[in-house]
């Protein structure tokens, strides 16, 4: 599955994306705000991450900026089920693209996807010292639960407090609570070789 938004293509990750992924995410300011990414982040880490990511994964995407020249990997976004059964939204954006609304744009797609998959409720969290992520979540309709939870971060080395958010997801066909139309979503069991070549990445 992949999706087109106004400025982005959201698509599965491929093994050949490893160099661009390592370059885009290999920034301590990014990794310290992620729970599972190692630091320093090397190309071998990107290869290991991508090796477990099959074509057609329904809920995890690379954010690829649509440009007149080579596509640019600018981040990642996904929804994953945690051990406690909650479904959590997570994302990251390369530093060069902070503050430009890409996480919000991709996040709207994830809300549409959650509706399509019948997921009634999404959670999210950000580290206390990363308020910009909270601003994105509030734009997407998430609300703080009032709970602060210590979470691990390999980039920080020790657990740190996070702010927890939650959002109820409308069932398919119910009214949306934002003003943007749905993004285009297309299912694909396997990307045709022509498309894979067209969307081969340049690093951010």
From TrEMBL:
One of its GO terms (molecular function) is acyltransferase activity, transferring groups other than amino-acyl groups. PANTHER family: [RIBOSOMAL PROTEIN US5]-ALANINE N-ACETYLTRANSFERASE, GNAT FAMILY, PUTATIVE (AFU_ORTHOLOGUE AFUA_3G00765)-RELATED-RELATED. This is RimJ/RimL family protein N-acetyltransferase. Signal peptide: none annotated. Pfam families: Acetyltransf_3. The keyword Acyltransferase applies. Belongs to the acetyltransferase family. RimJ subfamily. Residues 19-170 form the N-acetyltransferase domain. It comes from Sphingopyxis panaciterrulae. Coiled coil: none annotated. It comes from the Bacteria. Keywords: Acyltransferase, Transferase. InterPro entries: Acyl_CoA_acyltransferase, GNAT_dom, N-acetyltransferase.
């Amino acid at each position: 599955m992949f999706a087109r938004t106004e400025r982005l293509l959201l698509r599965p990750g491929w093994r050949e994306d490893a160099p661009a992924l390592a370059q885009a995410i290999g920034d301590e300011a990014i990794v310290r705000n992620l729970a599972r990414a190692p630091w320093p982040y090397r190309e071998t880490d990107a290869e290991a991450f991508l090796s477990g990511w099959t074509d057609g994964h329904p809920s995890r995407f690379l954010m690829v900026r649509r440009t007149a020249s080579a596509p640019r990997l600018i981040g990642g976004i996904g929804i994953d089920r945690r051990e406690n059964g909650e479904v959590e939204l997570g994302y990251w954006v390369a530093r060069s693209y902070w503050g430009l609304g890409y996480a919000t744009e991709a996040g709207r797609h994830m809300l549409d996807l959650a509706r399509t998959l019948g997921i009634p409720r999404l959670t999210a969290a950000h580290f206390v010292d990363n308020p910009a992520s909270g601003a994105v979540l509030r734009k997407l309709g998430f609300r703080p639960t009032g709970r602060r939870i210590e979470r691990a971060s390999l980039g920080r080395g020790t657990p740190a407090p996070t702010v927890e958010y939650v959002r109820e997801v409308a069932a398919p066909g119910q009214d949306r609570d934002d003003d943007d139309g749905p993004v285009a979503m297309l299912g694909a069991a396997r990307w045709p070789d022509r498309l894979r070549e067209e969307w081969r990445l340049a690093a951010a």
